[in-house]
Amino acid sequence: MTDVLDELQWRGLIAQHTDIDALRSALSEGPLTFYCGFDPTAPSLHHGHLVAVKLMRHLQLAGHHPLALVGGATGLIGDPRPVGERTMNSKDVVGEWANSLKGQLENLLDFEGQNPARIVNNLDWTSELSAIDLLRDLGKHFRMGTMLSKDIVARRLESEDGISYTEFSYQILQANDYLELFRRYGCTLEVGGNDQWGNLVGGMDLIRKIEGQSVHVLTNPLITKADGSKFGKSEGGAIWLNPEMLSPYKFYQFWLNTADEDVIRMLKVFTFRSREEIEELEQQSIERPQAREAQRVLASDVTSWVHGEQATERVIQASRALFGGEDLGDLDGATLRDAVDELPSAEAAVGTPLVELFVRAGLEKGIGAARRTASSGGLNINNAKVTDAAGVLDGTDVLPGGIVLLRKGKKNLAVVRVKE
């Protein structure tokens, strides 16, 4: 069971840790229980959360028992941000978001077999904690100097906005989570993002002070690109795991667009491919970078993990279909709409001259030019060549979702959305 630490280090999934030798010894003594917390500050997890979940999954595969904590209580408070106070969402909203996160975590971890994961919610014990209990039983173990010296708190205190007592108290509630899970489940390891180091250590110290026991903390790094910038964000914002907030097609495209200098590290972090497989993909990337095989594997594996293999197959089929590799008519309307969402578009009705469609969509400057291109075989509708420059749009040309795909040459794409 100690091999998992070596595996995590090779994959770049360890940032900071408490006594690594003590943790290695604890892992070698048999399965231990560990936890990671996820606050419902939005309706969905995003790609950054996958790093912590991936670390959890490796520990689970090594035989250790995962607790996935959904912060129904801490989500009402909000972990301090580097700048400005968080918006205080209502209890109903936070409750809905907590249920949403629970459903996503159930798809990412294994909840069956001999070593199933378990979902816990810190609202279960925090809601029973009175103000007197908080101050007497917990508050007395925290020193103001230590709390004020934490990086995020210190930065907020120096800012114009300062920090409220509400967010300042967050670290006490998170520390109490570790204490409660230690008492209830024998949890002796907390994992989380490296930006949570201070909060994680606070829980470890609280257990030592109250229970007189030593426990462990391990953080994963915040993933950056080769140039040091943050890995993430699409044009529309965060890389959400909820398909209603970011379609599987766009999710897949995000990973497919990973830069050559980053892709091998991302394969280590975000996939379960073996060392041998990743080393082979690295060699392929050196020899044939234009094939982008490593990016394709990364996009396929992560999308399958998050959205399932069927959704990934539809996305890949749609990607191929846009450039003539698949039959567009086999795609469902939702996937097709997602695939063409960012293409230049225009509206038209059945009966519109075909060459006019290319002018409306901006692929041709005028009707005459469109006719000349069509005559030379350079225009395609739904991957079929336009053979009649005088033809009109027929109802049978309209794909699911009211879409007609236009292509000029090999790479110039646009879409026509047909009015009903």
UniProtKB/TrEMBL annotation:
GO biological process, one term: tyrosyl-tRNA aminoacylation
Record's catalysed reaction(s): tRNA(Tyr) + L-tyrosine + ATP = L-tyrosyl-tRNA(Tyr) + AMP + diphosphate + H(+)
Residues that coordinate or bind L-tyrosine: Y35, Y170, Q174
Domain of life: Bacteria
Binding site for ATP: K233
UniProt subunit comment: Homodimer.
Gene Ontology CC: cytosol
Gene3D superfamilies, per database record: HUPs, RNA-binding S4 domain, Tyrosyl-Transfer RNA Synthetase
Name of the molecule in the record: Tyrosine--tRNA ligase
Domain (Tyrosine--tRNA ligase SYY-like C-terminal): residue spans on this chain: 337-414
Short motif ('KMSKS' region): ranges: 230-234
Protein role: Catalyzes the attachment of tyrosine to tRNA(Tyr) in a two-step reaction: tyrosine is first activated by ATP to form Tyr-AMP and then transferred to the acceptor end of tRNA(Tyr).
Annotated compartments: Cytoplasm
Top EC class, one word: ligase
Main location: cytoplasm
Organism: Ancrocorticia populi
Family under the similarity heading: Belongs to the class-I aminoacyl-tRNA synthetase family. TyrS type 1 subfamily.
EC number: 6.1.1.1
Molecular function terms from GO: ATP binding; protein homodimerization activity; RNA binding; tyrosine-tRNA ligase activity
InterPro entries linked: aa-tRNA-synth_Ic, Rossmann-like_a/b/a_fold, S4_RNA-bd_sf, SYY-like_C, Tyr-tRNA-ligase, Tyr-tRNA-ligase_bac-type, Tyr-tRNA-ligase_bac_1
Keyword terms, alphabetized: Aminoacyl-tRNA synthetase, ATP-binding, Cytoplasm, Ligase, Nucleotide-binding, Protein biosynthesis, RNA-binding
